[in-house]
Amino acid sequence: MNEFFGSVWWLIVTLGLLVTFHEFGHFIVARWFGVKVLRFSVGFGKPLWMRRDRHGTEFAVAAIPLGGYVKMLDEREGEVAPADLDQAHNRKPVLQRMAIAAAGPAFNLVFTVLAFWLMFVVGKPDFLPIVAAPSGIAAEAGMLAGDRITAVNGDAVDSWSKALQKLGESAIGRMDARVDVVTSGNGSATRTLAFSQMPANVGEDQLFDQIGLSLAPRERPAVVGRISDGDPAAQAGIQVGDRILRINDRDVNGFSDIETLIPEEAARDPQLDLLIQRGNERIEIPLTAAAVDAGDGKTRFIIGVGSSAAYDAKLQYGPLAAIPQAFAETWDATKSSLSMLKMLVVGRASLDNLSGPISIARFANGSAQMGLAWFLGFLALISLSLAIINLLPIPILDGGHLLYYLIELIKGGPVSERSQIAGQYVGLLMLVALMGLAIFNDIHRLLP
Description:
With 448 residues, the chain is α+β, with helices and mostly antiparallel strands. The protein has twelve helices and 16 strands. It has three domains: 94-123 and 321-448, no CATH class; 125-218 and 310-315, PDZ domain (Pdz3 Domain), CATH 2.30.42; 224-305, PDZ domain (Pdz3 Domain), CATH 2.30.42.
């Protein structure tokens, strides 16, 4: 239940930030060109909060947090007083209307760069891309335990998450991936992962099992990184940050010892005595391990603690050095997003890869739990996705308006109102169909 409420909360935070930034782009450029803005709304439906500024613009936060809008004075949407005609959106030159339409996606791009910049300044912890004993396609390609991935298809890789991203993109498109590695003996080699031979019926959830790469294990300190509500550790008063020194009379040197000793000792007697260190104080804590179904007809014992990740890499730069890194990351993410979009359009990637609000909420919650830098990276990617989606030439989106204005610029007159209305219906149907498919995929992923 905590995961549910956390996902909802971080979805609201994510959409609130990105929608506000997007709509502020439309708003500020419209104001700059002298268009009267009637309402700036974050969310749809009945306003929960509203105030009016000295220009007569209503600023509102509405009940449904899945978008927003900027309503401008326009003769096509209602009667306009003669004194206000010079402030009507439809009376402005076509180039100004194009700039207003493009401002929303442009501000999402600005947000993307800013979020990546702040992510690099804060420092994003990650793992070095060193692999464990491979299986599947990776083993067939000659990957070996201890190989450190340095590049995928010529793109430099400096972290495990970046390596997985690059490999995943190739695997989804069933395109062979050229992987440069430094071996455990400090030699260099190139392995070719034959994703083109992967069966077409392999789903997104099976992709990385087929690739066959996993992170080489690192010893984790015996420090509690997370605690499950309601489990024995929480009930006994164990806190995040506590270091477990001993379980019964057996010393603990790393978190793997905890994972081994808890079930071994509890199998003899669920009553356990833990010695922990909290700050400079050592505390003895008795607790009773809980028996849970292991899923194979057997029972295992847990106390409900998890480790803090033993990150061994950190992508961090000073404020000035982070600027080119942010632009480079934005460019790399843009190429990846456009490549994925192309694969979806031409049918090289399955529509099962589309994700909706449920998946976004889960990723938002997961990245927030991993720390500020990870959440900033997530925000940057979602903001970039919003920019790209809104620039698609689909009526009802910003890209559709830009298409209409481009036609108007070429032919010397606006697209007929009848054509625009027909386009709006077509665009709405397309969006509803895509959203329906995305939500269907979200629900399907949740099902066992």
